[in-house]
Design brief:
Number of helices: 8
Order of helices and strands: EEHEEEEHHEHEEHHEEEHEEHE
Radius of gyration: 18 Å
């Protein structure tokens, strides 16, 4: 079981705090606490924006908060209460879809990872800064998926493999690499880590030639091990 640990990231001009995947009661608790502190709260699907005196704090149900100013003093005192909530039961497929979506691309079975932060423009900014935003529960899910394959990729690595072309993000050198699944599983980096050899999920999160049934299997294993990083359990 993975205990929650505080990590702080600066992604572009945003201060980001990864949080557990938040249940509905946890999100309601955060809304009430923001309102007690005088914040005007606006809720949208899966997202809360709390504004006070020109400061806006964004709370995402996927499991992170961000602001243009450091939100630590506001959010971190609430973490012990968040961690005291019971886990919310959801259908097994809905739980799996918190981490993966499965589809066919040109007839090829494929899986798309759905990380909180390691996607879209954040992905490039994290590579340029040398940071990683993959949370421990996401690393667990993705590593189990990759470890089931003989060969996985292309991934982005900070070390070369056979005939891996170089990639530059900011002033940092990476490589586009194919790797044995077991090696990729070990090298996959999570927030707060730095290994001698690191690999990262693709920018688009897509893994080809993976059967959709694997997503349910990996998610069920995540449910047993994610601990305080996910407040959902599959039924």
């Amino acid at each position: 079981m993975i205990p929650f640990k505080v990590h702080q990231l600066l992604i572009g001009n945003r201060h980001v705090l990864p949080l557990p995947k938040l249940s509905s009661p946890q999100q309601r608790f955060l809304v009430e606490e923001m309102e007690k502190r005088g914040f005007a709260v606006r809720q949208e699907a899966g997202s809360v924006t709390a504004t006070s005196r020109g400061c806006a704090v964004h709370l995402e149900q996927a499991g992170y908060c961000w602001s243009s100013k450091d939100p630590s003093d506001l959010i971190l005192p609430l973490v012990p209460d968040l961690l005291a909530f019971p886990k919310e039961r959801v259908p097994a497929r809905a739980f799996s879809q918190m981490y993966f979506s499965a589809f066919f691309a040109d007839g090829v079975p494929s899986v798309k990872a759905r990380p909180r932060l390691e996607a879209a423009s954040n992905w490039g900014r994290l590579r340029a800064s040398g940071d990683c935003g993959l949370t421990p529960d996401e690393r667990l899910a993705t590593a189990k998926l990759m470890g089931s394959a003989d060969l996985v990729g292309p991934l982005v690595t900070d070390f070369p493999t056979d005939e891996s072309p170089p990639l530059i993000f900011g002033r940092r050198l990476y490589f586009r690499s194919l790797m044995p699944g077991a090696e990729a599983e070990t090298a996959l980096r999570a927030v707060g880590e730095m290994k001698p050899r690191n690999c990262y999920v693709p920018r688009d999160g897509i893994f080809r030639n993976f059967e959709p049934s694997l997503t349910m299997k990996c998610a069920s294993e995540v449910a047993l091990e994610a601990g305080e990083w996910c407040f959902f359990d599959p039924e």
